[in-house]
Model the fold of this input.
Amino acid sequence: MTTPLVAMEGIDCGYGGAQVLFAMALEVMPGEVVTLMGRNGMGKTTTLRALFGLLKPTAGAIRVKGRDMTGAAPHRVAAAGLGYVPEGRQVFPRLTVEENLLATARGRDGGWTLARAYGLFPRLEERRGNLGTALSGGEQQMLAIARALMTNPDLLVLDEATEGLAPVVRAEIWAAIAGLRADGLAILVVDKNLEALARIADRHVVIEGGRLAWTGSTAELNADRTKATRHLEL
Ligand SMILES: Nc1ncnc2c1ncn2[C@@H]1O[C@H](COP(=O)(O)OP(=O)(O)OP(=O)(O)O)[C@@H](O)[C@H]1O
Ligand SMILES: [Mg+2]
Done:
């Protein structure tokens, strides 16, 4: 049996006294593209924060490649092979594009380099000397994705992959994600565009009120969309 890249089970988590996640669970296998869907405020970002050690669960377990990482510090989770593209991108505003790419980079033989990142998003090469603050929303998202890839992750995690971006930029982001998938990279993606997610993903996790509400393959999703999508606003 293959070991999951990431396995989260029975996670309770929240902010101060306010519990947000209740026995939340999800799993990503190597090479798999999994979506995390749910309405606003249902706990998607909180799930990802728990996964990356930014919030400490009060119950449950998180394993990365079979190793217990429950409550581990964010840098340890990143070092274990997880790359994060957070909601709102969070590019370093006072660093140039190229400095952003190099700031958290971790080399790996045959892995991501500046040249490969610029190949994925040529726009970033044109803007390589510009400060983070000078970038458009789409350019910031490209930079956030490329910066995460420069850590050579085994799993790329994207929160709101295309939120607030123009249609043409969205298409570019989806194409890049499809290319990464074709290269065998595992991806966990939060987005609100069900059609784009259904085209790109192997499996889906739907969260409602901080709880796992539905999970299934894209084939299962397509076979009974109402069952999965009653938890979404469409
Ligand atoms: N820093 C915080 N402090 C207190 N409560 C928070 C904090 N961040 C989020 N919450 C609450 O936790 C719940 C889940 O929020 P979360 O951001 O995980 O939802 P989400 O599914 O990512 O929503 P969205 O689609 O709007 O991004 C919400 O009720 C929200 O108000
Ligand atoms: Mg969110």
